[in-house]
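Course assignment 3, question 2. Fill in each field.
Student: A.L.
Task: Predict the tertiary structure for the chain below.
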Amino acid sequence: MERNIKISIRNLYKIFGPVPDVALAYVRRGMGKAELLEKHNHVLGLQDINVDIHEGEITVIMGLSGSGKSTLIRHLNRLIEPTAGEVEVDGENVLAYDEDKLRKLRREQMSMVFQKFALLPHKTVLENAGMALLVRGFSVQEFEGEAKKWLARVGLEGNEYQYPHQLSGGMQQRVGIARALASNSPIMLMDEAFSALDPLIRSDMQDLLLELQEELQKTVVFITHDLDESLKLADHLVILKDGHIVQQGEPQEILMNPNDSYITDFISDINRARVLRVRSIMEKTKEAPEECAGDISERDNLESVIARSNGDTNLTYRVVRKGNQVGILKMEELVKALVPLEAAEGDARSRY
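Answer field:
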């Protein structure tokens, strides 16, 4: 079912420099980031960004350093003002908000989880978790129950009265997530939230986010430079380069059908078996296969199916969703999907 559009970004530009409106005219006539900097000493942060962020989904904005991803997320709560364009939340133009409405948006509609945790060192874990409620005027006694509930949900029960310096990095980031959840805001902005963590802890935090999202159905905007993280978390993936969108869409579709050489290079070394899902390559049909090797979920990755099949390419599986068949998967088709399109085409050309 199609979800409602929670945030709509339209024709958004951001140019850093003393006369951005003048520089904008050059950009609209086709001047790129490097030329703008060289000739006019202005930095093109964002160029004609158009994204719909749907309610209850995780939208991941991915790009390398300098691509504009952190600049973009800071436009959603107006920590950065755009040079041109529109940002709407629930159909309202955020750029037209006065100070009172903007303050209410930041306190009640959007929470933010930062890369560097942003915990107050002189406050306890409990007080940090309830900070959004404290700012709204609630006392510690009034928000204690809510803060403890979310600290327990992120695995920090029993740590309420410790201070941030007594926690590991992963535990501190869990406090940051609990703080965002305790605010009860429908939108969570997460700016490189897991980038400072060790790989194993980072994977645990990703799993935690997906587990919480399954239940809470928040609208999450997640910023990262990591492709594996993007493919694991995203319902909708937006890939930026030099301030503009190179490609956006369902991550499995982008992986199967990259529309730009930049994307092709980006995904060339990815473990396709680990990130591709059955739903992306199955044959959609409700007709059961003649010989069935068993049932698999549409959400299973190809790596798990390969392990189950012991590499037998003659098998066919029935693909199910909530117990009902939605397709079939032939192992020979799975093997073909593991070869990137460009590589397959290159091999074919080399034969002639």
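Instructor remarks: Residues 199-216 form the longest helix (18 residues). The first strand starts at residue 5 and ends at 16.
Grade: pending
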